[in-house]
């Protein structure tokens, strides 16, 4: 099996990535085998050949989310608490809509699940034998399961047709279909933040940033309970 190298910013970050990947594989999570690279800043991963991204959605969300549920239950010591604004702050200068900017003042729900941190359909690969793998585990944090669901819904809503409510409903329904609870209030709070993160990433790269759709959802979902 061929391998690919991922270079991290320093040796400590690479060592931590290797530690986390090893823990998750030992816990039974299907993620590529990892080993130290020749350069101390690198981690070498087994290359998984197969389908990824949108083609996997045609088979339904439940199979993908079962892996996410398994990840959520894998204990990984030393993870930081969820900070959903971490990818937003460096791009804050790109905000032009005050309604969208106001989300930065909202309260972040807490939790203890091991979160992927950047979940979307492109983080799964289905190999030729039908096994689905979950990849790109560099952003692990501890928080409520709804955070991963919100990121998945936000990415899908800004990549595919259907809009925010459609993908929010699909993701929550699939999560409940595999027997997992979803707190709708927590999900809605985190989806608001995830949409802002996605909006800014798209704007930064010059792609359609769905400002009107994001602002509309924020306006219509602003009535939630106080934590």
TrEMBL record:
UniProt KW keywords: Transferase
Domain Aminoglycoside phosphotransferase positions: 5-175
Matching Pfam families: APH (PF01636)
Annotated protein name in UniProt: Phosphotransferase family enzyme
Organism: Silicimonas algicola
Molecular-function annotations in GO: transferase activity
């Amino acid at each position: 099996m061929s391998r690919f190298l991922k270079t991290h910013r320093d040796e400590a970050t690479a060592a931590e990535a290797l530690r986390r990947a090893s823990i998750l594989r030992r816990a039974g999570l299907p993620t590529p085998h990892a080993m130290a690279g020749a350069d101390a800043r690198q981690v070498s991963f087994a290359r998984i050949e197969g389908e990824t991204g949108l083609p996997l959605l045609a088979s339904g969300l439940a199979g993908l989310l079962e892996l996410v549920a398994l990840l959520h239950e894998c204990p990984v010591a030393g993870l930081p608490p969820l900070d959903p604004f971490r990818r937003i702050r460096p791009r804050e200068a790109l905000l032009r809509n005050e309604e969208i900017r106001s989300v930065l003042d909202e309260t972040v729900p807490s939790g203890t699940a091991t979160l992927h941190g950047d979940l979307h359909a492109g983080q799964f690969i289905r190999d030729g034998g039908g096994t689905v793998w979950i990849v790109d585990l560099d952003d692990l944090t501890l928080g409520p399961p709804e955070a991963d669901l919100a990121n998945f819904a936000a990415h899908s809503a800004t990549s595919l047709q259907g809009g925010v409510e459609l993908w929010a409903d699909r993701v929550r329904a699939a999560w409940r279909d595999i027997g997992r609870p979803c707190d709708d209030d927590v999900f809605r709070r985190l989806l608001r933040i995830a949409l802002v993160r996605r909006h800014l990433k798209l704007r930064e790269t010059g792609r359609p940033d769905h400002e009107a759709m994001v602002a509309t959802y924020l306006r219509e979902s602003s009535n939630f309970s106080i934590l």
